[in-house]
C-alpha cells in the first residue's frame, strides 16, 4: 500500500462506527460542575473569518477558554469528533451544510458512540439578521443562544457563563 493511502486510513475518523469513542483524547477528571481539570475548549465554525476572530478574541480575553476556529464545516465536524469540547459556536449557513444540520450530525454521533457524554455539548448559533431559525432549534435545551449580527460582546459572554467564569468586561 502506498504511503499516501496508509496515511488516509490512519487519519480517517472512526467516529462513524457505533463502537467509536467520541470526543475522548485521554481520560479526564471532572469536578462537580462537569468541567474538565484541563482547559475548557470551544469550537467556532463560521464562514466569515472576521466573525470567527471576533468570537475567539472575545472569549480568550474575558474567559479562560481555549478557542479553536475553522471556516470549513466539514473540518468542524471532524474536530468535534476528535476532541472534547464544552460548547460550539456555529454559523447558521455555509454552502450545502448549515450549522443546524452540522449540529444534528454531531449529536447523532455522540448519541451512538461509546463515550461518557451521550449528549452533544451546548451550541450557540450565529445568524445574519434576515435568517430564520426553526422551531425545533428554538425548543432545544442545548441551544444556549441564537446571536444575530452585529454581534454584541455581552451576549457572547452571557452564553458561556454556564461553562466558565466570565471576567467583567467593564473593568480591567
Describe the 3D structure.
This protein has 6 helices and 7 strands, in the order αβαβαβββαβαβα. It has 172 residues and is an alpha/beta fold. The protein has one domain (36-160): 3-Layer(aba) Sandwich (Rossmann fold). α2 (49-62) links the parallel β1 and β2. The longest helix is centred in the N-terminal third of the chain and has 14 residues, at 49-62. The radius of gyration is 17 Å and the shape is globular.
Main beta sheet strand tally, sense and closure? 5 strands, parallel
At CATH's second level, what is the architecture?
3-Layer(aba) Sandwich
- Supply the CATH class: Alpha Beta
CATH homologous superfamily (4th level) name: Response regulator
Low-confidence segments: 1-36
Can you describe this structure in just a few lines?
The chain is α/β, with parallel strands linked by helices and 172 residues long. Helix content is 35%, strand content 18%. The protein starts with a helix and ends in a 12-residue tail after the last helix.
Short key terms for the protein model shown above:
172 residues; alpha/beta; Rossmann fold; two-stranded antiparallel ribbon; globular; disordered N terminus
Amino acid at each position: 500500500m502506498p504511503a499516501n493511502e496508509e496515511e488516509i486510513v490512519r487519519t480517517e475518523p472512526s467516529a462513524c462506527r457505533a463502537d467509536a469513542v467520541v470526543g475522548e483524547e485521554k481520560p479526564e477528571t471532572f469536578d462537580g460542575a462537569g468541567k474538565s481539570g484541563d482547559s475548557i475548549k470551544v469550537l467556532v465554525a463560521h464562514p466569515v473569518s472576521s466573525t470567527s476572530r471576533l468570537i475567539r478574541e472575545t472569549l480568550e480575553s474575558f474567559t479562560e477558554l481555549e478557542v479553536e476556529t475553522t471556516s470549513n464545516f466539514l473540518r468542524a465536524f471532524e474536530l468535534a469528533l476528535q476532541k472534547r469540547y464544552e460548547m460550539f459556536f456555529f454559523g447558521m449557513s455555509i454552502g450545502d451544510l448549515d450549522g443546524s444540520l452540522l449540529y444534528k450530525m454531531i449529536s447523532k454521533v455522540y448519541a451512538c458512540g461509546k463515550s461518557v457524554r451521550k449528549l452533544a455539548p451546548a451550541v450557540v448559533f450565529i445568524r445574519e439578521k434576515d435568517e430564520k431559525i426553526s422551531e425545533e432549534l428554538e425548543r432545544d435545551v442545548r441551544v444556549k443562544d441564537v446571536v444575530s449580527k452585529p454581534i454584541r460582546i455581552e451576549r457572547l459572554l452571557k452564553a458561556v457563563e454556564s461553562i466558565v467564569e466570565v471576567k467583567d468586561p467593564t473593568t480591567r
